[in-house]
Amino acid sequence: MSRTLKVAAVQMDAQPAPVVDRLGRAARLVADAAAQGAQLVVLPEVFNTGYTYHEINYTLAERSDGQTMTWMLAHAAQHKVHISGTFLLLDGGEIYNTAFLVAPDGRTWRYDKRYPFSWERAYFRAGSDATIADTELGKLGMMICWDHVHPELWAEHAGKVDAMVIMSCSPAVHKADLVFPDGERIGSDSIPALRKSYSGSDMPFGSTIDQQAAWLGVPVVHSEGAGKFDSTLPAPLFLVGAALALRPQKWGKLLQAKRVRMESDYYPQTKVVSASGHVLARVETEGDSYTLADITLNDTQTAPNGRQPRSEMSALSRLLADKITPAVVASQYERGLAALGYSAKPDPRRHLWLVVGITGLLSVVLLRLFTRKR
């Protein structure tokens, strides 16, 4: 036996805006999707604030009884739908990127992002546990953005869930431009480590969700951000240094590192995927929108289908995004918490990965100097 569930995957322009404005936009999307029969509405990552690398993130972190959670509870009850989405949560003197799934009757389930992507570690720390929400709709697994490129996180849900819910806001870093104050642009494809980390595809992990859904044998609802990503960077000297490492004639531009901005698109991946890995519905337009689909849930959890697919992301890309860059920017997180009156828990391996990153960057520079002299 099986049952059908109508779901809505929501796309929102990720340009930062006041919380009250973004919640108003989200309210219209939720109301419209519910009116079309949606029983589950999945909002994007940090739907309440938008996505940026800026110190304002510390002050935007809310408690679990704050404005955004109150909004989620109210709208789930009003429209009689389950709502999920993430926001920066201040809890126990630490900040997390937390997804909440809220039921119409007020029950909630929490999941903290396990893998902050690169520079995100400057604004929140990693979670540690999987969450399977045992709702009246079924058992729903939860992930946030970069988590889904890690096969071991999918494996934690094998045979335990009826569907997966993933909330993302993913700048296309592999196709980004570094924009200097003088207007010069340097593409991220000029950075050796990034160039080797991606396959050259327009969407290097675009099919990961489809493949893992087919392996788990359960449908996936995936929300995304949209629009243009335009932000300064925490600890910018590290990335700018990597971009210019093989260009000695431009090393003087390192003095402009603090004013460099990164610009890119987002991945157009707001979609609903079937248990066989086929895309049932996808948002094809820009800006705020949503797509509806009926997904089929089995009455019993199914075992995985064959051998689990490998990650489409290289080991190097995950090393850079999971370990090295977070180690470089973690001190900024500590300063941000201190400004709020809190002290971050120490990360015992941070200094190890910091040394690895700096050593790697210096090795590239020295190799370049040596080859030029020859």
Structure, explained:
This protein has one domain: Nitrilase/N-carbamoyl-D-aminoacid amidohydrolase (4-Layer Sandwich). Helices cover 30% and strands 25% of the residues. Strands 1, 2, 3, 4, 5, 6, 7, 8, 11, 14, 15 and 16 form a twelve-stranded mixed β-sheet that branches. By secondary structure, the protein is α/β, with parallel strands linked by helices. Helix 1 runs parallel beside helix 3 and helix 8 packs across helix 9.
What descriptive keywords fit this protein?
374 residues; 30% helix; alpha/beta; 4-stranded antiparallel β-sheet; single chain; Nitrilase/N-carbamoyl-D-aminoacid amidohydrolase; 25% strand; globular; 9 helices
Compose a concise summary of this entry:
The chain is of the alpha/beta class. Helix content is 30%, strand content 25%.
**CATH architecture classification name:** 4-Layer Sandwich
CATH topology: Nitrilase/N-carbamoyl-D-aminoacid amidohydrolase
Indicate the structural class: alpha/beta
Beta strand %: 25-35%
Distance between termini?
Answer: 71 Å
Number of strands: 16
What is the CATH top level name? Alpha Beta
Domain module count? 1
Radius of gyration: 21 Å
Total DSSP helices: 9
